[in-house]
Amino acid sequence: MATISLKDAKASFSHVIDKAASGEFVTITRHGRAAAVMVSVGAAEAARKALEPERPSLVHYLKTFPADLDPDDDVFARNPASSRDVDL
User: Fold this and answer.
1) How far is CA 9 from CA 39, 48, 50, 69, 70, in A?
2) Kind and range of the H or E run holding 2
3) Which of 37, 42, 57, 68 is deepest in the core (most CB within 10 A)?
């Protein structure tokens, strides 16, 4: 992982971009402390995907309900019966 000061990163921004695009993590420091890390788009997308919580669907959640239901049963199938008639 390369470390570069903010002043040097500004002066050679295209070089920093090239390093990050090639897969290297480039740490940018401000006043001697790490302020940011430049990474490739692939690494950023992988990190974002890893941080996102996986949200199961409602059907998946209901299937995990601790009941004495057979998951292969038609409990979660759509009811094909027509609804009641309403006079408007």
Assistant:
1) 14, 24, 28, 61, 61
2) strand 2-5
3) 37
**DSSP secondary structure letters along 21-73:** HTT--EEEEETTEEEEEE--HHHHHHHHHHHSPP---HHHHHHTS-SS--TTS
Structural domains for the chain: 2-50 (3.40.1620.10)
How do 26-30 and 2-5 pair as beta strands?
A: parallel
- C-alpha–C-alpha distance, residues 71 and 86, integer Å: 35
φ/ψ of residue 86, rounded to 5: -130, 130
Put simply, whether the predicted model's pTM sits higher than 0.85 gets the answer: no
* Four-residue CA torsion sign, 17, 18, 21, 27: negative
pLDDT for 12-51, tens place per residue? 999 999 999 999 999 999 999 999 999 999 999 999 988 8
Q: Which amino acid is at 13?
A: F
